[in-house]
Design brief:
The complex is a heterodimer. By secondary structure, chain A is mainly α. Chain A has nine helices and no strands. By secondary structure, chain B is of the alpha/beta class. The radius of gyration of chain B is 18 Å and the shape is globular. Classes of the chains: A mainly alpha, B alpha/beta. Chains A and B meet through helix 6 and helix 7 of A and helix 2, strand 6 and helix 3 of B.
Amino acid sequence: MKEFQESFYLNFIEDDRWEYIVDGLAVTLKVTFFAVIIGILLGFLVGIIRSTYERTGRLKVLNAVCKAYLTVIRGTPVLVQLLIIYFVIFASTNVSKELAAVIAFGVNSGAYVAEICRSGIMSIDIGQLEAGRSLGFSYWQTMWYIILPQALKNVLPALGNEFIVLLKETSVSGYIALGDLTKGGDIIRSRTYDPFLPLIAVAVIYLALVMVFSHFVTLLERRLKQSER
Amino acid sequence: MNGSYDPLIQAIGVRKSFGDNEVLKGIDLDVRQGEVVVIIGPSGSGKSTFLRCLNLLEVPTGGKILFEGEDITDRKVNIDRHRQKMGMVFQHFNLFPHMNVLKNLTLAPVKLQGRKPEEVREYAMSLLARVGLADRADAYPSQLSGGQKQRIAIVRALCMRPEVMLFDEPTSALDPEMVGEVLNVMRDLANEKMTMIVVTHEMGFAREVANRVVFMDEGVLVEENTPEEFFGSPKNERLRSFLSKVLV
């Protein structure tokens, strides 16, 4: 017990080392939050373009662009993408590490969200589109009022899962020396040469975040289900 | 009815191919205002495809379709505007499962025709009452029987105050005991002089309600006649053999 107390003091209290964890957590949440927003916007845009092409044959060129994006992003590791974006694409500019991370993870997540969104749209019976069009709605109105609300409900669990993955993936941000949660724990370890507590603390915080987030997704799912019964 | 067009719908040499497969081989059909035209024929004869060509759910690969005198197959035409006047009822109902009945009925009139929500709601409720479903306004489609769903689907199309109603095998997906309730609604509509084009296998309905019955086979309109002549003294050999199989 005494050992634990000493280790705890060394890792978190001495020199206010807990600040590494707290500041890192803030960075992780910030990067995840904005990356999720980019991921949703980009993902739905690409998913809608792809499914529109599959259903109607329109948007041929845009579909080809989207397909190339999906191939590249899903065919390379997110860490490599992060390094390329920070050290190559933004090399000559003064972009902050946080922004580079947000863009890298957002663009990466968008590819996965796009496929989730596309499969959700394609899972809606074609009769729904025909019913909407037969009433006089345009393709895009039908999409907005009729297809997307149903598709979104279907893919919500998959989307929730994708964001949990994204939250955990941001832990590689340390590679561009961004002080996220993982990096914070690692810095403490490198100062104290006592790896157990800081790394376990980091893991526990990730776990807690994921559990809270899963809980919200479940709640939301249940609320959406109520409207159908 | 605003203005009178004669005929209301005119199909001229309508062709439709899916790849190498020619499903419609040049169909001509005129439908006048207030007329009930029933299309029958064996499965695969192209009758549903033809009906779906009339509101361009299938785009014809040849020929013209005039609606209220305007060629709606012209690419410059805004088809969404015309479809507001052409109600369609599907075999599988296609109600919107994420909305309750009332929302299903009012969505399109409010969003597309700019009508006041209260006015549309009242109109929808009066139509619901007429098909005997006023008490289901708050229900979701998943809580309804097939016959109820199809009656709601008919009301949904009617809420747009269409000039013509297209029915694509409206009773084919129903349990037998529910066919009657849907046909009754359609019969009432016909009595109110709604223009209707109906693809169906219900020979009794065709005989009793139709002004004209049309027989299609292998993408061709084979015979077109009054119900009496059509069922009483069919001229075409294929029609005779078809009727001998379905009228037992």
